Prior knowledge:
Shape: globular
Number of helices: 5
Radius of gyration: 18 Å
CATH topology: Trna Endonuclease, Chain: A, domain 1
Distance between the termini: 40 Å
Number of strands: 4
Helix content: 40-55%
Largest sheet: 4 strands, mixed
CATH architecture: 3-Layer(aba) Sandwich
Order of helices and strands: HEEEHHEHH
Structural class: alpha+beta
Low-confidence stretches: none
CATH class: Alpha Beta
Amino acid sequence: MTSLPAAGVPVTKEPVGLVTIDGKRPDGLTLIPRQGGKPLTWDVTVVSTFADSYLHSTSLSAGSAAATASIRKESKYSSLPPEYLFQPVAIETLGPLNASAVNFLSEVGRRLTSLSGDPRETSFLFQRLSMLIQRFNSALTTDSFCFADEDPDL
């Protein structure tokens, strides 16, 4: 996440020594404390709004797949030492984020605004995330058509 360093918060990617039971590491760690003298770790996941496992809930409530993925991430990283804060960032392929990620990213946007003086920084941050998801979706769609070129019957 390049926005944190731009907001004056130094980070390290995939910190060594912070592993879960299955050997996975969080995506990042702030090198300075965030709240209560604790550094922040985070892990990002992108979930498909249309996956069979989420389809029923997403048809009833926008963002429910992101909320469910967030809860799973919190559970996965519950074994992190208590001296670290954990922030799940779950994004659906159609755009919704989990509520705590929206709050977290809004705070990053406010810090960017305080450094740059541009009140649009939070909007720009969410627009960049939106573009990343759109590019990801485009790449998945393009990849799904690659096999059609190989088999004329498709």
